[in-house]
Amino acid sequence: MDVNWNIIGVVAILVLILVVLTIRKNLKEKKKLENLLNNDFKKAEKKDVDADDSANEK
After folding, report:
1. SS (HEC) of the chain
2. What digits encode the pLDDT tens for the residues 3-53?
3. Has UniProt tagged this entry with the keyword Membrane (predicted)?
4. Cα Rg for the chain, rounded, in angstroms?
């Protein structure tokens, strides 16, 4: 049984390229998700003023 090293080499290179592209895409998606989660919040607006919470008043 003869092993065709050319075909095995081509398949190995294609698999390596696929793995690298997948990792790069996942890193981009991770960065996008991290930015979204860090910047996608709204500050709670206070409607009631607490007397204990007024640090600037003297």
Report:
1. CCCCHHHHHHHHHHHHHHHHHHHHHHHHHHHHHHHHHHHCCCCCCCCCCCCCCCCCCC
2. 899 999 999 999 999 999 999 999 999 999 999 888 887 766 767 666 666
3. yes
4. 28
Given this model, what pLDDT does residue 6 score? 94
Q: Can you give the residue range of the structural domain that contains 15?
A: 7-37
- d(CA 41, CA 37) in angstroms, rounded, equals 8
Predicted confidence at residue 39, as pLDDT, reads: 86
26 residue type, one letter? N
In the chain, how many domains are there? 1
Output the six-digit token pair for 28: 């981009």
Amino acid at 45: E
Cα–Cα distance, 16 to 14 (Å, whole number):
5
